[in-house]
């Protein structure tokens, strides 16, 4: 198979979808890999390293899209990439269709095969290609929140861990999954008083067993959230519904109940956000203020630590990329239920329920699509 790795062009996105080690692995199966020049530079990988591993370097993004059967990316295609995508071309990346109607319709129109990292799902319902970036984003959230709590950045002027004789900050984490767990761990490690909320009592029991003493668990409902935000200094949104829009747990009217300078970090923003007033921002302009509340809503948080993020992501994606390249997407998805669940849009048809529901589109059974292709 001919595999293309374009340079990411989303604002301040420095990750790359394939490392030189990944190139070498794919070359073992006689695949041809084209990498756009400087695609790996943001993550610390040179063109020379890719060439040594067996890749061929192309000068432009247009050349990569034109030649490849499968495009491996990190983030969803942006507007200038839409027309580069060929009918029947496999795009293997994060899509988050439920947060962008424009992207959804663009991929339907291009009749591409859109296999989304974020909906590849194991039998235990874990999301193996989302977990690594959730871990990075979860660990970054308190770090970024702590920074924007500083007064020069319009925060409350509170040190997350406090000092002897002065209370630490109160951190509220909404969601006890991978992101929320990592966020709570880091915030607690910095000395904050942490409350983590979830609607799954079994998960709350698990969290209670291994979290440090400065983390308390609480059942998530509107009343408890409204009470907690009154004293929270930093609120981290960490709610995920695979492939679907995140629910709004913090609504616009709730901002009035928060203290001026409170910081909101919505890690779920690339799935529509669990904070109603959050809109995607970039590392270049990461925050804005509504009702004296600082909103940090960067949609690609892990892009700020690309070396760590790229290695963590490619460790997870490469085995699936090898399957897709070796078998072709149809057979790979037919053989592997995890990959089949990653299919979101195929040949102009929406095959993932969360995407269809988000934009009121017709849902086509992916099994029927695979049978038709065969």
UniProtKB/TrEMBL annotation:
EC class (word): oxidoreductase
EC number(s) on file: 1.4.1.1
Pfam family, one: AlaDh_PNT_N
Catalytic activity as recorded in UniProt: L-alanine + NAD(+) + H2O = pyruvate + NH4(+) + NADH + H(+)
Domain Alanine dehydrogenase/pyridine nucleotide transhydrogenase NAD(H)-binding, first and last residues per copy: 149-297
Protein name (record): Alanine dehydrogenase
Active site per the UniProt annotation: 96, 270
Lineage: Bacteria, Pseudomonadati, Bacteroidota, Cytophagia, Cytophagales
Any GO BP: L-alanine catabolic process
């Amino acid at each position: 198979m001919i595999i293309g790795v374009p340079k990411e062009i989303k604002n301040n996105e420095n990750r790359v979808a394939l490392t030189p080690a990944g190139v070498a692995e794919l070359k073992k199966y006689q695949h041809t890999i084209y990498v756009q020049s400087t695609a790996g530079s943001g993550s610390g990988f040179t063109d020379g390293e890719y060439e040594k591993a067996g890749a061929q370097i192309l000068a432009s993004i247009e050349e990569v899209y034109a030649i490849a059967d499968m495009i491996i990316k990190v983030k969803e295609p942006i507007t200038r990439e839409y027309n580069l995508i060929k009918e029947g071309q496999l795009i293997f990346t994060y899509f988050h269709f439920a947060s962008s109607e424009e992207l959804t319709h663009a991929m339907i129109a291009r009749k591409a095969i859109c296999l989304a990292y974020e909906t590849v799902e194991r039998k235990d319902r874990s999301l193996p290609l989302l977990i690594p970036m959730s871990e990075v984003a979860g660990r970054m959230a308190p770090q970024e929140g702590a920074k924007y709590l500083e007064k020069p950045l319009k925060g409350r002027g509170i040190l997350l861990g406090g000092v002897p004789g002065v209370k630490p900050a109160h951190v509220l984490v909404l969601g006890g999954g991978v992101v929320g767990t990592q966020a709570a761990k880091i915030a607690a490690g910095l000395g904050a008083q942490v409350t983590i909320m979830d609607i799954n009592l079994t998960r709350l029991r698990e969290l209670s067993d291994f979290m440090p003493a400065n983390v308390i668990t609480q059942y998530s409902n509107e009343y408890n959230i409204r009470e907690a935000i009154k004293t929270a200094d930093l609120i981290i949104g960490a709610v995920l519904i695979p492939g679907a829009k995140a629910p709004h747990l913090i609504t616009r009217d709730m901002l009035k109940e928060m203290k001026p300078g409170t910081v909101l970090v919505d890690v779920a923003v690339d799935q529509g956000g669990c904070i109603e007033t959050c809109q995607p921002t970039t590392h270049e302009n990461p925050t804005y203020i509504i009702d004296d509340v600082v909103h940090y809503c960067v949609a690609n948080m892990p892009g700020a630590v690309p070396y760590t993020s790229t290695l963590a992501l490619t460790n997870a994606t490469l085995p699936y990329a090898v399957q897709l390249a070796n078998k072709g997407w149809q057979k790979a998805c037919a053989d592997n239920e995890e990959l089949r669940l990653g299919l979101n849009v195929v040949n102009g048809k929406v095959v993932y329920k969360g995407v269809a529901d988000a934009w009121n589109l017709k849902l086509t059974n992916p099994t029927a699509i695979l049978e038709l292709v065969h």
